[in-house]
Design brief:
Radius of gyration: 19 Å
Number of helices: 6
Helix content: 10-25%
Order of helices and strands: EEEHEEHEEHHEHEHE
Strand content: 25-35%
Oligomer: single chain
Bound molecules: zinc ion
Length: 218
Amino acid sequence: MKNTYKAVEVSAPGVLRVVERQVSEPGAGQVRIRVEACGVCHTDAATVMGIYPGLTLPRVPGHEVVARIEALGSGVSKWKIGQRVGVGLIAGEDGVCEPCRRGDSVNCQNPVVSGVTADGGYAEVMIAEARALASVPDELTSAEAAPLLCAGITTYNALRNAGLRGGDLVAVQGIGGLGHLGVQFARRLDSILSQSGAEAKKSLRRIWAHVYIDTAVD
Ligand SMILES: [Zn+2]
Ligand SMILES: [Zn+2]
């Protein structure tokens, strides 16, 4: 196997370049994964512009990663080589800070953050923390699954944490990269949607909105 891989790194604020890197072995509790798809999220811009808090450059952006495991670090027993997995933005909580100990790991004070504290998925190869991996079902292609790792979980959790039940009425305002996923999750609950413009109306029909409200019209 080639011992180098291509990655797209931010070498200085606003400067993205393709580089060839040495393949490294995963450390304890980590896996090395071969990337099949990586979504593009607006948060990546904070890495590209060098403004994400705590960021050091060079850094490879990308936190909607679907990949296959190709090497296991020591102590990794639950995952297998060849298994397809996903990695999101918060990609390894420390497990010991106060929020973690309260079970609120999304607010960990010292997390591994893909594309910020560790290199992300704009690359052929990535090192990821085994404890943060999600298993990807065979029914989804890698390109379909990738955006679910950030845009998908954000909108799904918004619906879930709003305490909604089947049959409740939901409005999703703004049908962009996140909103179109919110619509599709809400459809399973019963949704009403708002967005302006004829183009939006067409795309909303395609993703099964029940109702369309044009916010540009009184
Ligand atoms: Zn994101
Ligand atoms: Zn923590």
